[in-house]
Amino acid sequence: MSVTSEKPTVMQQPSATAPMTFTNNAPPAANAAPAGQPRDWSTGVCGCLDGDFGGFCLSCWCPCIVYSQYKSRLDHLKATGRAMPPEQVETFGTPGVLWLALNCCAGFAWILDFMARDEIRKRYNIRGDGITDCLTSCCCLPCAQRQHHRELLVEEQHQWGADTNGMQQHAPTLDQHYPATQEPAQQPHYTTHPPPSTN
C-alpha cells in the first residue's frame, strides 16, 4: 500500500477593501459664494413687495403650498444639480402635506421653513445664523418663503439661460409661482387663396 502525501492547500483570504461610500455627484450651486466669503441674500426679506405680491398672498393664505413647491425644487437641485422644470413641480406634494399636518397637530410648521432656510443658506453660502433664520421663519413666514423662492429662482434662471440643447426653456419671473401654466401652442395661420378662375 502506498501513501501519497499531498501538499496542503493554502487559501488566501480576500484583502480588506475600502467601505462603500455614497457621494452626491451634483455640481455645486452656480450662484454660491466662494468658500469663506459668505454673501447676502439675493433679495431682501421684504422683496416680495416689489413685484411678487401674488406669491406673497399665496404664502399668506396657503403657506403649505408655497413650502411644498420650493422644498421640492430645493431637494431636486440638491439631488441632481439641475433645476426642476416648472411643469414638473407639484402644486401640493409630500412636503406640503407634512407642513399642513404639523401645523394642524402642533401649530408650529414654520420650523420646516426654518430648516429649509438653513439648507438654502448653506447651499449658497449666505451670511446668517440659526437665530436670525428662526426669527425670520417664525415672525415673517410669508416674506421668508418668498425669499426662499427667489433665491432658488436665481439658480434656476442661471441654468435655464445656459441651456445648451439649443432650446431656451421658459423661466418664470419673480412674480410667478409654481407650477407655471403653459399656454397652448399657437397653430400657424395659413391664408388660402381661391383657385384662379378660368374664364
From TrEMBL:
Pfam families: PLAC8. InterPro entries: PLAC_motif_containing. Residues 1-36, 180-199 are annotated as: Disordered. Residues 16-35 have a biased composition (Low complexity). Residues 1-15 have a biased composition (Polar residues). NCBIfam families: A_thal_Cys_rich. This is Cys-rich family protein. It comes from Rhodotorula toruloides (strain NP11).
